[in-house]
Amino acid sequence: MDMSAGELKLRPGIAARLERLPMTNYQRSLFGIIATAWFFDSMDLGMMTFVLGSIKAEFALTATQTGLLASSSFLGMFLGAAIAGLLADRFGRKPVFQVSMVFWGVGSLLCGLADNVTSLMLFRVLLGFGMGMEFPIGLSMVSEIVPAKSRGKYVAILEGFWPIGFIAAGVLTYLLLPVIGWRGIFIALSVPAAFVFVVRRRVPESPRWLEDARWLEDVGREREADSTMAGIEAKVQRAWGAALPPVADTYAPAPRRDRKALFTELWRGPYARRTVMLWLVWFFALLGYYGLTTWLGALLQQAGYAVTKSVLYTVYISLAGIPGFIFSAWLLERWGRKPTCALMLLGSAAAAYLYGQAAVLRLPVEQLIAAGLCMQFFLFGMWSVLYAYTPELYPTRSRATGSGFASSIGRIGSLAGPYLVGVLLPVTGQGGIFTLGALSFVVAALAVLLLGVETKGRALEEVSH
Question: What confidence score (pLDDT) does residue 4 get?
Answer without folding.
Answer: 37
